[in-house]
């Protein structure tokens, strides 16, 4: 099969986006899934895989894979006060039906679609740990193992972020019955992480982090104990909804982000997901901590969350990446497009995010790529030592034809629909050819069978 490529392997790109900018006639030497060297202005040489316009793969820093199966099923109007919170109740009812086989099939479909859109690694914010009745599986990490298996089967890079969840609200409130599949104490969660390490042994290039679900879901004492359990990234949902901010104020006298910055060792390991509702001092605080803001524009729009204060964050040197979150729509370019367009609507201007002379598309792509790599615990870009994760754009696509350099990237982000990604290589192996995942038919068949059972 096309994905069974031995190393070393050599690529030759007509043009490629390097950290310092676009370069022509670029030779990329790879071995054991990593880039060994990158040389601009080089001849193709014998045996090189010819490529057109190449950009480094983009990391998807926030995903709940199982929610792909409910995409489009919560768009019924007329419910009084429909909001994130009513959507959450529907989600709880949906996930009660998922078996381990179902989860793997759904995750494979989501991960396949991520690769086809240009994402090459995912941060899986994984909180579906237990059986529907809340009991642990015989293998404590059964569901985490299914996530790892889905990533391996589709070729997507995986940063697994097992979620710690113990309470339903601030102040250690008792969990709800609908949350029984998520719950752990700290000792039980440490045992889960041991199981996750075993599950990831056969998953190439995998990274293990962890995720306190939110300040609602853990006490200050639990939050303090968690960072020492792993060496990898730490992600947390925070300040996504106004109601959450108000509840945190009532509990602590502080807003969520301010409380977190004052009470947790927030640094480069951390990713603050959403962080939608911020005051100026919180914007400066996140930027100064060197944490990554994990923005999910499609989901945040779908749920009516609000708009992140992007321009102020960027002006303070803030780092960010994008994620597909609820997977209601999986499209790397669309996340970047909506990120910029949301700011344009709020500020009533054009090209409002990029602080310098770079085009909006290139600036968004490179910043999101670097931020996601940091948040997912991997090296970034087409540079020696980084994963050999390459995305080839289709220069013959109607929206990309006749473009080069920044204009090509701008046209992908702002003007192209499906089909603009021609091929994707992960760790030097091809997983997308002519816009289709090499295992699309079998993955889609398993997904349809799982969906039939779930919805039936």
TrEMBL record:
Stretches assigned to the Amidohydrolase-related domain: 54-429
Keywords: Hydrolase, Metal-binding, Zinc
Keyword Hydrolase among UniProt keywords: yes
Cofactor(s) needed for function: Zn(2+)
Residue stretches making up the Formimidoylglutamate deiminase N-terminal domain: 12-48
Stored Gene3D superfamilies: Metal-dependent hydrolases (3.20.20.140), Urease, subunit C, domain 1 (2.30.40.10)
Keyword Zinc annotated: yes
Name recorded for this polypeptide: N-formimino-L-glutamate deiminase
Organism: Stenotrophomonas nitritireducens
């Amino acid at each position: 099969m096309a994905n069974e490529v031995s190393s070393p392997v050599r690529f030759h790109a007509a043009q490629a986006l390097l950290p310092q900018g676009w370069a022509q006639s670029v030779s990329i030497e790879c071995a054991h899934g990593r880039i060994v060297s990158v040389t601009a202005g080089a001849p193709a040489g014998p045996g090189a895989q010819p490529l057109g316009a190449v950009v480094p793969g983009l990391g998807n820093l926030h995903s709940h894979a199982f929610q792909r199966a409910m995409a489009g099923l919560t768009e019924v109007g007329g419910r009084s006060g429909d909001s994130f919170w009513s959507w959450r109740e529907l989600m709880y009812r949906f996930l009660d039906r998922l078996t381990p086989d179902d989860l793997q099939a759904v995750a494979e479909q989501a991960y396949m679609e991520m690769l086809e859109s240009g994402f090459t690694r995912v941060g899986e914010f994984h909180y579906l740990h237990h059986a529907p009745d809340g009991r642990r599986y015989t293998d404590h990490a059964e569901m985490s193992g299914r996530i790892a298996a889905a990533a391996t089967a589709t070729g997507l890079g995986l940063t697994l972020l097992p979620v710690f969840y113990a309470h339903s609200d601030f102040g250690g409130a008792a969990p709800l019955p609908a949350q029984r599949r998520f719950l752990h104490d700290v000792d039980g969660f440490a045992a889960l992480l041991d199981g996750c390490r075993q599950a990831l042994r056969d998953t190439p290039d995998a990274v293990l982090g962890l995720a306190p679900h939110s300040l609602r879901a853990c006490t200050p004492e639990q939050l303090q104990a968690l960072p020492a359990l792993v060496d990898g990234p730490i992600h947390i949902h925070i300040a996504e909804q106004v109601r959450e901010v108000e509840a945190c104020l009532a509990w602590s006298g502080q807003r969520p982000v301010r409380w977190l910055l004052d009470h947790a060792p927030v640094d480069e390991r951390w990713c603050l997901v959403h962080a939608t509702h911020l005051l100026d001092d919180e914007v400066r605080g996140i930027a100064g901590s060197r944490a990554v803001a994990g923005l999910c524009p499609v989901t945040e729009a779908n749920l009516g969350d609000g708009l992140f204060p992007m321009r102020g964050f960027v002006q303070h040197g803030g780092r960010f990446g994008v994620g597909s979150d609820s997977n209601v729509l999986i499209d790397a370019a669309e996340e970047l497009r909506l990120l910029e367009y949301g700011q344009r609507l709020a500020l009533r201007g054009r090209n409002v995010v990029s602080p310098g002379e770079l085009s909006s598309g290139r600036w968004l792509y490179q910043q999101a790529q670097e931020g996601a790599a940091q948040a997912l615990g991997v090296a970034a870009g087409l540079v020696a030592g980084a994963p050999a994760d390459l995305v080839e754009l289709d220069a013959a696509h109607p929206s990309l034809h006749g473009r080069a350099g920044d204009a090509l990237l701008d046209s992908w982000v702002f003007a192209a629909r499906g089909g603009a990604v021609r091929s994707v290589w992960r760790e030097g192996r091809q997983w997308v050819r002519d816009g289709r995942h090499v295992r699309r038919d079998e993955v889609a068949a398993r997904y349809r069978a799982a969906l039939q059972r779930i919805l039936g």
